Here is the input.
Amino acid sequence: MSESLARGVRGAAFVLSLALVACSPPARDPAPNAFDGAVADWTREILAESPELATARAAPESAAGRYRDRLDDRSPEAEERRRTAAIRREVELRAFRAEDLSPEQQLTHAVLRAQFANAAALAEYEFGTLDPLGGHAPYVLDQQASAFLTLPDFFDSRVTIEDLGDADDYLARLRQVAPALDGETQRSRNDADAGIVPPDFIIDRTIQLIERIISTPLQQQVYLAAFRRKLDAVAPPPAPATQPSPERRRAEALYTLAEAVVRDRIIPAHQRAAIWLRALRARAPHEAGVWRLPGGAAYYRAALRAQTTTDLSPEEIHRIGLARVAELNAETDRALRSLGLTEGTVGQRLSILTRDPRHQYPNTEEGRAALLADIQARVDAIMRRAPDWFDSLPRARLEVRRVPAVNEASSSGAYYEAPALDGSLPGVYYVNLRNMAEMTKIDVPTQDYHEAVPGHHFQIALAQEREGLPLLRRLMGFNAYAEGWGLYAEQLVDENNLYADDPIGRIGFLRWQLWRAARLVVDTGIHAKRWSREQAIDYIVATTGDAPGVAVSEVERYVAWPGQACGYELGRREIVRLREQARRALGRRFDLASFHDVVLLGGEVPLTVLAAEVESWIARRAR
Here is the structure.
């Protein structure tokens, strides 16, 4: 591993220790029960690294320790520990031979082998932020995943207060926000010293978002608004002309302390981040892709492997994207012509259609309420049809909510948040209502099917509810599997004729499919073919008919999250391929609902593992 690649591997002593492990004669393989113990140890370690993950999933304290009063440590030292641990876990896993394990353990071994190998490969790059369970972001401070954006949402939607003891924990965590922000600012400084500087437009957008938080009035800061709402629920305000209860007086005292923390610590930490980014802006390049980073080409290949769980090269993915765009372009052209839309390119006609006021909700609170009501109606309709397609249905509730105001500017159009493992928190489908022109009646139905049902809510909740699945497997994420399922869910709805009376909605379905195919082209274009930001935006607008503002947000997301956008279409392709393979092999014995159980009940897995599981199911069913 040469210095010229600047891959930033661990220090010489640690590298030597890994080499000695790799070169030593293999020890006697541990017994199967030792494997279960190792999985439990890795689970505890990962949850200890991320009390925020433990909170979001309501992990049992027996596995996670006490975490309700802690945030993730975002300091440079903690990030180094995470990288070192990721590399060590991959080495430890290699001590177990799959052939010595039970069938269920073998599946867990295969899943962990892929996840740990990807995490270890990305941990070799001493920049950005490593997620041991989900990939890597090259820039510590960006417009979509930095602490100044994720923590307000975490406090608002995931931190629960059931009594005043929980309120003490909330305040304890609040006191850790400023150190978390400062930790990321320091890591951004360290990365800049090593030549890792975000593009100028990423810095501009990030400064804009931070300054918006700084300028928000104190009482409206999410940390305080959420605290007030939760305190009022456990210690209600007194009735008129009555004295507050002792609990209420204590709640007010806690709120006053929280105000001081936000005013005197958290806001100044935001200001320090903004000052740093304004200074960094003078050194920022305009080139969008990670190809310009030290070792950037190898880094992008590692990111693609983690995000797609394939060994496809950037060039291969680019070609797959171009072919799929051409296929969908032809199908969309036919659908548009059936509506009498014949003039202009497909992208131009889609743009005209999405701008038509007849297909938009009013950009008012009434329009937003109507959209949310329509989404709920679609969710209810799918749940009535779901028993025809699925043997297993999730027990977890699904709620539809607006994206919090603080995150609207940086958030995607919609996203799903997993339920708690213990059922205490529902799955949540968040919809971004910043601009109703972006939430058209053409596009929203397919978005609902992807993010909510039968998409991510089925995929995540069913895996979490599977008895006997190791906790670590229930926590794990594989982008190509998850987003591939979401895209497959869109297709499943179309195949079952839910658009039969909604030709405009079916245009939206095709547009969403076209968009995901275009992502293959654009992501590889930016990071491997050295496309500019502007070239990528132009391609998205021309291909999908997106408004330029939407295309800008999407392209900047791909810039800050290399490879992630490629998971959708590659995952869908594999699930469909496996389904059709099963249909051909089994003939009359093929059952769609049983196939879906095979795909969903094992939790998120690499595409290679999914293929092996489906092929095993085909063999069993064919007997």
